[in-house]
Amino acid sequence: MSTVHPEAGVVPGMSGVHASILDTIGNTPIVRLNRIGRDLDAQLLVKVEYFNPGGSVKDRIGVNMIDAAERDGRLQPGGTIVEPTSGNTGVGLAMVAALRGYRTIFVMPDKMSEEKIRVLRAYGSKVIITPTAVEPDDPRSYYSVADRIVAETPGAILGNQYHNPANPASHYQTTGPEIWRQTDGRVTHFICGLGTGGTISGVGRYLKERNPEVQIIGVDPQGSILQELYYTGQSGQAVSYLVEGIGEDFLPSTTDFGVVDDVVKVADAECFDMTRRLVREEGMFVGGSCGAAVAGALRYLRERKLGPEAVVVVLLPDSGTRYLTKLFNDDWMREHGFAIDEPGAERVADLLAAMEARPLIAVGPDADLRAVVGLMRANDISQVPVVADERLLGIVTERDLLAWMLEPAHRDALDIPVRELMSDRIVEVAVDTPLAELGELFAHRGIAAVRSQGRLAAVVTKIDLIEYLTQRADSRRADG
Q1: Residue 127 lies in a domain
Q2: Are residues 400 and 330 part of one domain?
Q3: pLDDT of residue 189
Q4: Which of 294, 312, 335 is the last residue of a domain?
Q5: How many domains does the chain have?
Q6: Residues 175 and 90 placed together within one structural domain of the fold
Q7: Which one is catalytic: 47, 58, 208, 326?
Q8: Do residues 120 and 183 both lie within one domain?
Q9: Which of 129, 158, 187 is the last residue of a domain?
Q10: Which terminus of the chain has a lower count of CB atoms within 10 Å, N or C?
Q11: Sequence-ordered list of residues with C-beta below 8 angstroms from that of 198, at least 6 positions apart, any chain
């Protein structure tokens, strides 16, 4: 990627030998997911960024940001690079600094893994740890501490990944063209986690220039404010979350929402469960933000009916080697209240097999409330999903109907379409969703629609799960 330093290019006379480790950055592979998401019609692909020499997608911006600082004269020989980072950007910067003789100081929130800290120190970097649960403008925040170090250190510059145009430019110049080339221009959807916004903005801009119909989808962890900012322009209160490397408590200027078509929210439990599944089911040893991206992609795709012509590329930012003491540590997972999905763990398919066979009863969005009441009465059910072309739109429940009908102005208004009354208190899951994850989802949604072989096949509720677990416990007691 760098063209202004002698370490760039290939060794003369040996076309297969790189002049330095920096020339191995990029051209990471795209791989199909064969087990996870197999119920989808769409082609689900992942771009595996841990093939970069520093182990993450941030290697791409490390070179570009330092090249830009050298070109404009901000970074002089023997200077110091300071950066607030969750770890991966620090590695990308430290790798370049090691070759070019710069000092590096990195400021990290205290929620980051010990592995990341040790990797940065292995490069010779100084690492300063700050509290996570403070506002961005708090003098103790990792942003504020980094700014203070730059002001106090002669010859120091801020890498400034949150506001440095070299960040999204890196992905416009490399990641986006790679995806277009590797899919022969057939990519229809690009999905990645939101943090600095550099990846989604650079890739999104490039892909939309090649094909304006390509959909760009961000994934944001619960606790971050980016999804709310995208939809409303207003920032709520950020709360603590555990997945690393994505989400923010402010809007970086490197984020261009103009190229983003949708933003999906995911919870820590979904992120960690999917990360562990990627290792066990796909052989991909990746980090928590990778699990977040895939979990968000599955949620997005299951809410839409995309045929086999859809080519979905999900970016996996880094390696799982930096999270061995956290999400790959069963004790850490249990201490933080996360269920452990052991190999062979029970899944939604096991719950369906134990339930009495019953067809999916659903209505279209134009069905009137009188028809919905008739379906509930005839089938002895208390909720009805609203579906259009195999796409789950929402649900209408007895509670919704009762609240509507008790309003004096509505008592005789049963001819309105159900879309006027439906709610979003339903979530879509696959047959291979672990029961532990289903239980976590029930904390936010009381009902789940199950998709199997591309079709909505069943509805399960909290009581279905409770009855299944009770029967299992009784069976084990009888066997014991």
Answers
A1: yes
A2: no
A3: 98
A4: 335
A5: 3
A6: no
A7: 58
A8: no
A9: 158
A10: C
A11: 61, 161, 167, 168, 170, 171, 252, 254, 255
Q: What percent of the chain has pLDDT over 70?
A: 94
Strand ranges (DSSP E) for 332-463? 383-388, 391-397, 426-430, 447-452, 455-461
Q: Is 58 annotated in the active site?
A: yes
Tell me the three-class secondary structure of 104-128, residue by residue: EEEEEECCCCHHHHHHHHHCCCEEE
Residue 232 structure tokens: 């409303």
Answer yes or no: pTM beyond 0.85.
Answer: no
Say how far apart CA 460 and CA 381 lie, in whole Å: 12
The Cα–Cα gap between 393 and 411 comes to: 25
For residue 382, the model assigns a pLDDT of: 85
CATH number, domain of 256, equals 3.40.50.1100
Structure tokens at 189: 């959807």
Task: For the beta carbon of residue 5, count every other beta carbon within 10 angstroms.
Answer: 17
Query: Does 8 fall in a domain?
Result: no
| In contact, 165 and 69? CB cutoff 8 Å | no
> 447-452 and 426-430 as β-strands: parallel, antiparallel, unpaired?
parallel
Both tokens of 136, joined, read 């961005």
Name residue 34's amino acid. Answer: N
Residues 73, 244: Cα–Cα separation, whole Å: 33
| Angstrom distance (rounded) from CA 148 to CA 153 | 9
472's CB contacts (< 8 A; 6+ apart) are none
pLDDT band (50, 70, 90) for residue 8: low
Residue 393 lies in a domain: yes
pLDDT in tens, 171-211: 999 999 999 999 999 999 999 999 999 999 999 999 999 99
Identify the domain containing residue 69 by its residue range: 59-158
